[in-house]
Amino acid sequence: MKYKEISLDDIKSRPEQVRQDFSEERIDSLAKSISEVGQLQPIVVQKKDEHYLLVAGERRFRAVKKERKDKIAAVILEDDISPEKFRQIQLIENLQRQDLNPLERAISINKFIEANSLSKKDAAEKLGVARTTLTLWLNILEMKEKYQKEVLKEDSPITLSHLSLAHALSSKTGDPNKANQLLDAVIKHNLSRKECQAVIDLFYKYLHIPMEEAVSAVLLKRERLKMKDYWDDANKVKNRNPVRKLFRSFSNINDNLEEFMEEEGDIAEDDKEDLLDEFLYLYQIMGILIPDLKNKDLKSLLKNLKNKGN
């Protein structure tokens, strides 16, 4: 390798360039930085006949050109570089600098794997990343274009972790539509990764539950936790409001129910009637405290449940 300044006019970009999306705003920012403090990192080129082929540093190259400079600092590789080796060098540099967006990164890694007939394990070793990380990066290629674009948005709730969970759900159920339903719910309700995992856990445990019901259960828990935090904060002022005490009692009931569902899941037949009686009694008391609960449809539902218990 040699290091020297070379003419910008003698440099050509290679057609196999890994990076395809070049933000003019980021290049302008880099050009300004180079103008103020100089070029801190050289580009990498390969000598080819009477010119040089750019191997790494496309953004630096474009930024220096914007500054209307004649020359640029470069490391010159004298040995011939195969297209596969070129892609590996570019990938490693961009991965280390975190310069590629998630879709560019996945496409480039996949091309590198196919061109070299590599397993994911071998590709991970050559690129210097963990195999699990590489698998996470590649999951985006298994998703519909709609969700690929979502990941690229700065304000989107969908992350690569969400895509990984959706991909796992699709693989386990053999139904890609389940992954689409889950990701649609993430977009619509701004589900966190933890909430997304909770939806999947419910779906795995109750295999016949519709996806929307699993999502609704998680959203209800989200609202309950908000209220619980509110009442806990209010309790810190040592206000002995009896409604707060009542709310904490209901909160404890909900916690116990969730714990039971996670550990047991089903209620023994002998216990169902007793539990139903307690629920109906609780409903009657709440109907007195909150008259709006006396909804006709709800009463009909409770009547049907009571008839089944008799």
TrEMBL record:
Region forming the signal peptide: none
InterPro entries per record: Chromosome_partition/occlusion, HTH_ParB/Spo0J, ParB/RepB/Spo0J, ParB/Sulfiredoxin_sf, ParB_N
Family membership noted in the UniProt record: Belongs to the ParB family.
Keywords recorded for this protein, A-Z: Chromosome partition
GO cellular component entries: chromosome
Entry's Gene Ontology molecular function annotations: DNA binding
SMART domains: ParB
NCBIfam families: parB_part
Organism: Halanaerobium saccharolyticum subsp. saccharolyticum DSM 6643
Protein's name in the database: Chromosome (Plasmid) partitioning protein ParB / Stage 0 sporulation protein J
Domain of life: Bacteria
PANTHER family: CHROMOSOME-PARTITIONING PROTEIN PARB-RELATED (PTHR33375)
GO biological process, one term: chromosome segregation
Alphabetical list of Gene3D superfamilies matching this protein: 1.10.10.2830, 3.90.1530.30
Pfam family, one: ParB_N
Residue ranges of every copy of the ParB-like N-terminal domain listed in the record: 4-95
